[in-house]
Structure formats: C-alpha cells, structure tokens
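A quick aside before the break. I want you to see a complete sequence-to-structure record at least once, exactly as it would be stored in a machine-readable document. Don't worry about memorizing anything.
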Amino acid sequence: MKPEQRQQYIELTESDPINALVAIMTQLRDPNNGCPWDIKQTLQSIIPHTIEETYEVADAIYNGDPEHIKEELGDLLFQVVFYAQIAQESGWFDFSEVAQIMCEKLIRRHPHVFTDQSHLTSEQVEAQWNAIKQAEKAGLSIPTSILANIPQGMTPLMQAHKIQKTVAQVGFDWPDIPPVVEKIKEELTEVEEAIRSGDQVHVEEEIGDLLFAVVNLARHAGVKSETALMAANQKFTRRFMQVEALITENNQVISDLTLDDLDELWSQVKMKHK
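That is the input. The structure line, written in tokens, reads:
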C-alpha cells in the first residue's frame, strides 16, 4: 500500500472511526492486497475468536480499567464488522443493515420510551418485551418446541439458565427457592451414589444434573450463574496468588509444602482479605 493510501485511512479514522473500521475491514479482506489470514477466515472459523473476545471484555470490566475496557470493546466490535464483511461478500447484508435492524428492533421493543406509554416497572418492561418478541415471530414458521430457538453456541451455564427461564414462562418451574434447594440435595445424593458405583459415564451424567440444579438455584435467587462463577474463579485466583506471595516471602518452595501447610496459608489470606 502506498503511503498516501495509508494516510487516507488514518485521516478517516480520526474523522469517522465507524466507517473507517468498515473500510479497513474491507481492505483486510481484499483478495489481491489484503491480509492472508483475514482473507481465509469464514463465519465459522472466527466464532472461537468472538467468544474469546467476549470473555476478555468481561475480564476488563471486572478489572475496572476504563482504557482496557475500551480496547476490548473495540476488539469485540471488530468481530461484528468481520462477520458483516463476510456476509456482504456473500451478498447477504452489510454492517449498516446490521446496525439498522438493531435500531428498528430497539425502537419497536421499547414503546414505553419511544411512544407516550411510560411509567412501567422493570418486570412490566420485560413482559412487554417478550410479548412484542412473540408477536414479531407470529408470522414465522412455528418451531416444534419452545426450546427450539435456544442458541447452541451459548456456554453451558448460560444455556441452562436460558432453558430454565424459557420453560418457567409456561409454568414449568417451582414457585420459590426451598424445593430448588431440595432438588440440589437430591442430585448431590445421586452423584455420591454414582461415584460409589464406579460408572464414570453415570458420574458425568449426575454431575451434569447437579450443575443444572445449581444454575436453577442461581436463577431463582436472581443471580447469573455465569457471572457468579466468573467472580468465584477470580476470587480463588486472587487468593491463591496471595498464597504464592506468602510462600515466596517465607523463602519456601510450594512443592515442599503439605496440604495442611497450604490450607493454613489459605486461611491467613482469607482472614486478611475478607
């Protein structure tokens, strides 16, 4: 690329960054002068990258660094532009159509904002959203099950939450938390029995049932299990790194310590950083 062409992209980035991003993506996919890696990608091949970028956004938010959040959101936005570019090359749609359909959907599904209707509670807004969503799909082919449209690309925890929330909308749900807790106890007992049986396939099945029940408890408690587990992972990681720091301060080697030694250090860290 000639210097003057590169300068054009830089100037466009400063004056109109959204269109600049689309133009850069088009250049990257140019069959003659683009990037070999970008050119060979497909909608399917970049799915893992999108998932990775989504988690990196979440991690940046948890870390609370505005500059890092901005950078990671840019990486995620690039994924959307990438998909749109591939779709445009296939003659399906382009990025502007993606943005347009989202704008139309948001206006249509928020009549309490974009019409005279107002003063709705959060619960009423959610019910209204679902009603409008169902009305939009009324003219489409009717799926054989209310679970037919659960995205298969979701993480298992998110998918479990979505399944449970969907069937709850037709009344297949416990009314309160106590029976949900009892179900977890029941599933835990079945896990213990499966472990004693020595049947690994059965153990996996029962642990899956237990996890599904725990996700249901989180949902009833108003907690997103994905978010809760991510926070727990971060807390464990943070505490273990503090244990490692104590070991270093004591001029010890972690492999020389017993489990009791490590538990003692863990307790110290836990008491210090409640």
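Two observations worth writing down. The first helix runs from residue 3 to 15. The chain is about 70% helix and 0% strand. We'll return to this after the break.
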